[in-house]
Design goal:
heterodimer; A: about 350 residues; mainly alpha; ABC transporter involved in vitamin B12 uptake, BtuC; two-stranded antiparallel ribbon; B: about 575 residues; 24 helices; about 75% helix
């Protein structure tokens, strides 16, 4: 039973709003499907593209969720950590291409590039924590968030100043062309690699969190910092570790993203960052499996959504509205299930 | 005794060189080569890295808080010089590195030209020696601020900073002097876009002298003003406000066409800042999608007034359209406010950011093109009659709304509503428990903030005459946020100062515009770490933000005092 009447008015308004959006989407999907202009193969390819993109979102979202789980702050600059990883990868790959290593040993170069991006993103994330966030531990909540926005601008425009504002095309590894047939599904190799790599990393993280001593310490710190400290856990070290893991995953995500989109530029961290955050909220922020699930759902919705929900209404160029769908999902989640799909309802 | 100081001086010096290296490599040094700081002596670009070295010298010579000891005067100068020399050495190392190795495929600005500029065109050997020597001198200069009596030190520092700003503001001050018929004075003071040596001496002398007099005699002046009988004080107040308003009214005539344009932009940002200040500063809701209201205001105005509006064009006049725009704005504020009401601060930030992006994407998309003109935007929006689309004329409605908004915001802050927001910001649960209807007050903050933003948007549309969706990117929100944070959250004079510094100054440094957001980012981080209450804080805000910091500091100071047995020096 609601506490007060005025909450009711707002709840009714919100449910009407949310319901309206859902009805709109459902009717649009009905119209599109009954018109049947898009073939099943096209749907399949859209879904696979969505899963590939979603696994990248999931890797970034894990960084948000891990940090949120421990510090209860949104590391707004996480998207920029991802972007810096992509840039270092570009330099590594281009440098090795210039000395001719790319042609002789593309697999080695790819692995080296991946490791460079992961290490460098990790360094950026740790520095970020050390310089921008640690001095503010315990400050009112708005303060670290504003710092994070500032750090995000700083990293973004430093990259622009250092590396220029142009788009750099990623060197061609020559590894990701063609398609493979898995049962009834035809899949582009690049998407397959992205999905497999992301799953491997997520399993690794799951193992790390649940089976290692450090992982256990992380869980303890996220339950209760003070008690964890009393049990002899070095809380500061665990926080740094958390940022480092987030950075490593963002670096890996950066490489996977460049496999899919093949370009690097200073603004590339912004939208994936926001969407990954959306994914983390969708899955329940603070929940690791939730972040992975949220990323996948969001990726698929983003790829399939514009065609499924909007073409039926005859809306011109629906893919322009791709980002709108992601944000609408965020708003719907916050209306109907603010704790996310797998999240616990927290007491404020 | 020298140990801890020495170590600190070394780290400070090495770190003090890094900002210079960073700003060189992002290209700021090269970009600002075109502007003289002291005419014929040094450009702004070359000066930038060395400003940080002065700060490093100043910092290196400070007292050790933990040990509670202070370096002696000679020690202080030595430490400053050491830190400065190391900072210079870091710069020198960078210059030598980028001349020796070509890294331009990574760092596009690491050109030999940059190295030559920073080596004062003296070649690598002499240049490096000069860098270290000048670094040492400036570091010692920074340290000397610690050695002087506090009032002198403050006068010297304030003089330096203000003179720097006066020099950068050449396009403004120069134009004012010209329009006042003081061309001769302008020729003496300025040359090549910066102050001349004579200009430096005159301005510096005036400012430093004035600051010194104020810090020594200011109390007496203030005491005399306080001692005035109330009615005389009211008269004095009226005279001051009258003068201020007269200056504001005459300003466009004094500064001329181009700078009136800048004043208009500053005015729009003051309006945006005042509105966002209600949401963020008063109510404590971090709204990053504030641009959505700005956009709604601009589009609503365009659709209602422009004959070129694609869907329907009632072609109202600006003033008839404005009330409708404001109502639409408040409704949009409620609409956006409602879903995010129950979210905590950080969620809210991202959701509102999402809303801002949604608004822009929708306005821009083909789907909305029949109403908003899509990527083409809406053209030929009429100016607000009787004013014309001329920077000197459109300034007046902007000024009018700024004053109105400032008065509204001031009275809101002092009212029951303002107190409710205060309570809510400081502790939501407690506020609710004491009977503050937080839902209502949050929605009210959103609706009022939206109204201010929409008026700014309406003025923007009629000022420019054409609107495109891309004018409403997230950067507008970030601008507005940065300026209220720099100025001081929750404080109206702070918003005005913030707008003048963050929107006004860059307009005088056109070369700088590319680095604006970089600097905003730095401003946000540095302000949050060093002075979260802003330059001109409101009193309650200051107390709120310093509660825990001060506690900590005192605790550390006490602990340190106990451990070392030394007397604790607290500033």
């Amino acid at each position: 039973m609601p506490r007060r009447f005025r909450f009711d008015v707002i709840t009714i308004f919100l449910w009407t709003l949310g319901g309206g959006i859902l009805l709109f989407a459902a009717y649009g999907a009905f119209l599109t499907l009954s018109a049947g202009r898009i073939s099943p193969e096209a749907w399949q390819s859209l879904v696979i593209a969505g899963i590939a993109l979603g696994s990248v979102y999931a890797l970034i979202a894990l960084g948000y969720t891990l940090v949120y789980g421990i510090l209860f702050m949104i590391n707004f600059a996480h998207g920029e950590v991802f972007m810096w990883g992509a840039f270092t990868a570009w330099f590594m790959a281009t440098g090795l291409q210039n000395v001719g290593a790319l042609e002789t040993n593309p697999v080695g170069v790819f692995i080296l590039t991946l490791i460079t991006a992961m290490i460098f993103s990790c360094i950026i994330a740790v520095l970020l924590e050390r310089i921008a966030y640690r001095p503010l531990r315990g400050a009112p909540r708005l303060v670290p968030l504003i710092t994070a926005i500032g750090a995000s601008l700083f990293l973004q425009y430093t990259a622009r100043g250092f590396f220029g504002s142009g788009v750099r095309a990623f060197p061609d590894f020559g590894l990701f062309e063609g398609t493979v047939q898995i049962g009834p599904i035809t899949m582009n190799v690049d998407r397959l690699i992205v999905i497999v790599a992301a799953i491997a990393l997520m399993l690794g993280l799951y193992f790390f969190i649940n089976r290692t001593r450090t992982g256990r310490a992380m869980r303890a710190v996220s339950e209760d910092k003070d008690v964890a400290a009393m049990m002899g856990i070095n809380v500061d070290r665990i926080i740094v570790t958390t940022f480092a893991i987030g950075g490593v995953l963002a670096g890996a995500a950066a490489i996977l993203y460049t496999i899919l989109f093949n370009s690097v530029h200073f603004y590339m961290g912004f939208l994936p960052g926001i969407k990954a955050f959306t994914a983390a909220v969708l899955g329940g922020i603070g929940n690791i499996i939730g972040a992975a699930l949220g990323g996948l759902i969001l990726g698929v919705l983003e790829q399939v959504g514009p065609n499924l929900f909007l073409t039926g209404y005859g809306i011109p160029s629906p893919n322009q509205l791709q980002d709108v769908i992601a944000f609408t999902v965020l708003v719907l989640v916050l209306i109907f299930r603010p704790q996310g799909l797998l999240g616990r309802r927290e007491n404020q | 005794m020298g140990g801890p100081f020495l170590r600190r001086a070394i780290t400070t010096g090495l770190l003090g060189g890094i900002p210079g290296v960073h700003l060189s490599l992002v290209g700021m040094v090269t970009a600002l080569q075109t502007r003289e700081l002291i005419s014929g002596v040094v450009t702004i670009g070359t000066a930038i890295p060395f400003i940080f070295i002065i700060i490093a010298g100043w910092y290196a010579a400070g007292p050790d808080r933990a040990l509670g000891i202070k370096p002696s005067a000679i020690q202080a100068l030595g430490l400053g010089a050491l830190a400065g020399a190391l900072g210079g050495a870091v710069l020198a190392a960078m210059c030598l590195f980028i001349t020796a190795v070509d890294v331009r495929w990574i760092l596009v600005n690491a050109t030999p030209a940059l190295a030559e500029t920073l080596q004062f065109d003296q070649g690598p050997v002499v240049g490096s020696v000069l860098q270290v020597a000048i670094g040492a001198a400036l570091g010692a200069a920074g340290a000397s601020l610690r050695v002087m009596p506090a009032s002198v030190g403050r006068a010297v520092a304030v003089g330096g900073v203000v003179t720097l700003i006066v020099s950068v503001m050449e396009p403004f001050v120069g134009a004012v002097l010209r329009n006042l018929g003081l061309k001769d004075l302008q020729d003496v003071l300025y040359e090549g876009g910066g102050l001349t040596i004579v200009g430096w001496i005159v301005v510096y002398g005036l400012v430093a002298g004035g600051t010194y007099l104020w810090s020594t005699r200011g109390d007496r002046v203030r005491a005399r003003a306080d001692a005035l009988p109330p009615d005389r004080r009211r008269v004095a107040k009226i005279v001051v406000y009258g003068l201020l308003i007269a200056v504001l009214l005459l300003l466009p005539q004094i500064v001329g066409q181009r700078l009136s344009e800048v004043l208009g932009t500053i005015g729009l940002y003051i309006l945006l800042g005042l509105g966002l200040n209600i949401v963020v500063g008063f109510a404590g809701l971090l709204d990053l999608g504030y641009v959505a209201f700005f956009a709604v205001g601009a589009y609503a105005t365009a659709i209602l007034t422009s004959p070129a509006s694609p869907a329907f064009s009632p072609e109202l006049s600006f003033w008839t359209a404005l009330p409708i725009v404001i109502i639409v704005a408040a409704l949009v504020g409620l609409f956006i406010g409602a879903p995010v009401l129950r979210l905590r601060g950080d969620y809210l930030a991202i959701v509102t950011l999402g809303f801002g992006e949604i608004a822009r994407e929708v306005f821009k998309s083909q789907w909305a093109a029949p109403v908003t003109g899509g990527a083409q935007g809406i053209l030929s929006i009429p100016p607000p009659t009787p004013f014309e689309r001329d920077p000197q004329s459109i300034y007046y409605p902007i000024l009018f709304f700024c004053i109105l908004a400032a008065i509204a915001a001031t009275s809101l802050a002092a009212s029951r509503v303002g107190r409710a927001w205060n309570a809510m910001r400081e502790d939501e649960s407690v506020a609710e428990a004491t009977g503050v209807n937080t839902t209502f007050y949050k929605l009210l903050a959103f609706a009022l903030g939206a109204t201010f933003g929409c008026v700014a948007g309406a003025l923007f549309a009629t000022k420019i005459g054409v609107i495109y969706a891309d004018s409403f990117s997230i950067l507008v929100s970030i601008n507005a946020l940065a300026l209220i944070i720099l100025g001081g959250m929750g404080n109206i004079p702070g918003v005005i100062v913030g707008a003048l510094v963050l929107v006004g100054l860059p307009e005088f440094l056109r070369e700088f515009s590319e680095y604006r957001l970089l600097v905003y980012g730095i401003v946000l981080v540095v302000m949050m770490i060093l002075r979260p209450e802003g330059l001109l804080p409101s009193r309650s805000r200051r107390a709120e933000l310093h509660e825990h910091f001060d506690d900590d500091e005192e605790m550390y100071a006490e602990e340190a005092g106990e451990e070392t047995g030394r007397p604790v020096v607290t500033a």
